[in-house]
Amino acid sequence: MAEGRDLPVPVRRAASALVDINKRRRALQGKLLSVDMDVWDGMVYGEHPAQKMDAWELLDFAPRDGWPAALFLHGGGWQTGDKEAFSVQAPLLARRGILAISAGYRLAPEHPWPAQLQDVLAAIENLRTLQVDPTRIALWGVSVGGQLALLAAQILGPEIISAVVTVGAPADLTAWDDPALDQVFTHDQLSAASPTLRPEKLPPTLALHGALDRSVPVSQARALKAAHPEITLRVVPFADHMLRIPPGVGIRELRGARKWLTEQIATSSRRSKWKAHKKKK
């Protein structure tokens, strides 16, 4: 999480410009992917400006018991990031007949821990008031969003959370050397905020982690697996923190994760009512 903080100013500016370009690219790609969906931007679940959610629903008749649903949680070291991070992943999952929702949450240091976890729990509670099947709710978290997803699943239990997907999640904060921790947590909060160290079992969980992750070392994922053997760990060879390198690897792995999650919470495949049905000859 601390990578890039000590780089020269021109390099940091170039990196910031690249992030902005990628954000614009994702937004455009997301709009194209969402053309046959209902999209709700900025649904409020709290009074703070960050306490909002975006939702993607396939243009199809909802199942009788409500849609299976997945809540996406962004990364950013608990201090940066926003719900727009999933403008591509969310509609790709919604196309599989899952109500996809991306939630923002309050950020540190203005809002130290446990504000982020409190917001995730509040977002889940709000999600359950929508047209969803309360027995088929999943969480998908990237980086520290994965830590939040794992904690929420442990706190709420399998009666509420049916499945979890994480990408590059820190899971034992007591064994992670990152400057961000001092800006978010007090020392005595670290153990309780570490899914690896908590006793509660996890629901079906797929943990993806790059073998060459320099931000959150893969040892974090392996320790989580050792403490919670019920999870499925997929160490991605030669991959970095966000599975962006090597090129194409992340696309393949995330496609597989969407398939896995669909198998966990969706009972049948769906497709948009806009899609033409071929007549049988």
Report on this model:
The chain has 281 residues and is of the alpha/beta class. The chain has one domain (27-265): 3-Layer(aba) Sandwich (Rossmann fold). Helix content is 31%, strand content 19%. It has helices spanning 9-33, 89-94, 115-127, 144-156, 180-184, 219-227, 249-265, and strands at residues 37-44, 52-58, 67-73, 99-103, 132-142, 163-167, 205-210, 232-236. Strand 6, helix 5 (180-184) and strand 7 (205-210) form a beta-alpha-beta unit. Helix 3 crosses helix 4 (144-156). The protein is globular. It starts with 8 loop residues before the first helix and ends in a 16-residue tail after the last helix. 41% of the residues are buried.
Supply Rg: 18 Å
CATH superfamily: Alpha/Beta hydrolase fold, catalytic domain
The secondary-structure element order is HEEEHEHEHEHEHEH
Mean pLDDT: 90
Short description:
The chain is 31% helix and 19% strand.
Structural descriptors:
alpha/beta; disordered C terminus; 7 helices; Rossmann fold; 281 residues
